[in-house]
Amino acid sequence: MVNINGNLVEDKDATISVFNRGLAYGDSVFETLRVINGKIIFWEDHYFRFMSSMRIMRMEIPSSFSPEFLEEEILELLKVEKLINSPARIRFTVFRSFGGYYRPDTLDIEYIITSEKLDDPFYLLKEEPYEVELFKDHYVTSGLLSTIKSNNRAVNVLGSIFAKENDYNNCLLINENKQVVEALNGNIFLVNGNKIKTPPLKDGALNGISRKQILSIVGVLEELEIEETSISPFELQKADELFISNVIVGIQSISKYRKKEYGNEIAKQLLTKLNVKARLG
Hints:
By secondary structure, this protein is α+β, with helices and mostly antiparallel strands. It is built from 7 helices and 16 strands.
């Protein structure tokens, strides 16, 4: 089942117009959510990022879009799909209503919610080899638009194809200043000793929900330091650890970049604490 503007319809009957503005112009934003036994993980942070993304895109936010209303829309779909007692992935997509060309006829929005079952109720650190490479064919542009989850993901799509063609598990994206910004599917963290770095939002890094949680976790740990600062590609091979974060997998350790191989001790420590936050928050 799919929720289209509050109506639950069968997958085979779920359709949108060929003139949909999300399809025609990428005039759309989305939020990917992890739900465990009917609880949306880090829901408050997701909600406020979603509202911020719509404002940045100059969309008219319906007065009905309260946290309670959107949560109920999500949970109702999970109930119908018999996923309310299972781990699940939700994609909540908002697109501007039909009309106009580059300049829309309206700022009003419509929405679609889809669901998918996940295997694991909590985050697990995967130990198998995970190799990455820089994707240099195209850049993430630094600035505000790159920090939101819009449907303009051409760089991520092309980077994913590059990774598959060259037998990499993932790629790291760079901006026009040749600074490392993020991975194809999440934020990037670099560990040297007790110091952790992650690219700042001004460099074009996604304003990730799990990124925010990790910043919060490390911020209260006396034994670790964290800094939001630009990262050059040259720093990657000097690091002790590299890991990727997103709300679906939690933390993914990188085992190899070019000739350098990495450990995962800090990643393990942080993943344990991230699971605690997910259960409590």
